Structures are given as C-alpha cells and as structure tokens.
Amino acid sequence: MPKIVDVEERRRRLVEAVWELTMRGGIEKVTLRKVADEAGVSMGHVQHYYSSMQALIRDALDRAVQAVNANVENAIGAVGEPTPKAVLRACLHALVGPDEESTRLMRFCLAVAGRAVSDPTMTNVLAPGGEELLSFTAGLITAARQERGSEPRGEELMDADICWSLATSLGVDVALGYRTPDAARRMLDHHIDGLVNND
C-alpha cells in the first residue's frame, strides 16, 4: 500500500520550526534552509509545501493568529459562571496568559509585525480584531451594563475596540517582559470595571 502522507502534520512541523527560529534569532534570519535544518527535513521537502519564504511566514502567521483565537475560545469555554462581564474578562485575559505558548505566539506576531513597513500583507497582524469580534465584544459590554440596570450608550463598538487594543498592547508588554501577566490582568480588570460600572 502507498504511504499515507499527513500533509497538515508536515506543514505544522515546518511552521513550528519558523516559530522556534524566530524566537531565537528574529524573523529576518529565518531562511528556508534553516527551517529545513530545524525541522530535520530536506530543502526539497520544504519547497514542496511552500514555494517561497514569504508563503511559509504567511502560513506561520495565520496559524499563530488561529492559535491565539483558539486560546480566546478556550478561555470562554472555561468560564464557570458565564455572565457577560466574566466572558469579557476571560476573552481579554487570554491575550496576557502566563503560559509559555501564549508568550511564544505573541512574540512571533510581534516579530512579523515589524515587517509591515515593507510588506503590506503584514499590517494587520496585531490589529485588535475584525468586525465580528468587535460586535461580539460590544454585545458583551451592552449585556454587562444591562445586568446593572444601565442603558446602552451607543458607544459599545468603540469601547470594544479600545478593550482589544488595550489587551493586545498588554499582551505585547507581557511577551517582552515589560509587565507580568498578573499586572496586565489587574490593568484589564480595572478597565473592565470602569467600563461596566461607569454610568
């Protein structure tokens, strides 16, 4: 029988090599040859799945963003009492997680963001999120305020954008060691409390 090739697993292995090399030496020093050596495969193997270094980095970035989104979804699923405020808090806290994987993903995204000056496809790597995410967050803010008996103020989408901008910025601080995860979470909680409780 012909050998069944797990294409997804092979791509994931190459992406992992990109992440590791970026953490050690920066994105500028990552080459197809180094990726092949890190993954323990031939250059031909890498080029079979990715036609260029840019294509490989793009996939590594897309997968990093997917992993961050999965962290947010998992955080929501882990909320014991899913009140709107608790879910909002869990979403934002997911970007400042203390675990090594969260830090690695944020550092990689930050490294790629530095290429945005010369590569327009990288400009949105650390953007706060698309319309769907902002609408979801705005809904949480509205529901959390209504639980307190407050009326919507019509600025929830702007508030949602600010929340994700703050969380992303704090995630970068944690990834670079400027702030501890606990300090970042305290700042987020302070902002969330003011957002929900301020009439």
Question: What would the keywords be for this entry?
Answer:
mainly alpha; 199 residues
Spans of at least 5 consecutive residues with low confidence: none
Largest sheet, if any?
none
What percent of the residues sit in helical stretches (DSSP H or I)? 55-70%
User: Residue-averaged pLDDT, rounded?
Assistant: 84
Coarse morphology:
elongated
Q: How many strand segments?
A: 0
Distance between the termini: 69 Å
- Indicate the radius of gyration in whole angstroms: 19 Å
SS summary, helix count: 9
Order of helices and strands: HHHHHHHHH
**Strand residue percentage:** under 5%
Name the structural class: mainly alpha
In short:
The chain has helices spanning 7-25, 32-39, 43-49, 53-77, 84-93, 100-113, 131-147, 156-176, 181-197. With 199 residues, it is mostly helical.
Describe the structure.
This protein has 9 helices and no strands. By secondary structure, it is mainly α. Helix 1 (7-25) crosses helix 2 (32-39), helix 1 (7-25) crosses helix 4 (53-77) and helix 7 packs across helix 8. The radius of gyration is 19 Å and the shape is elongated.
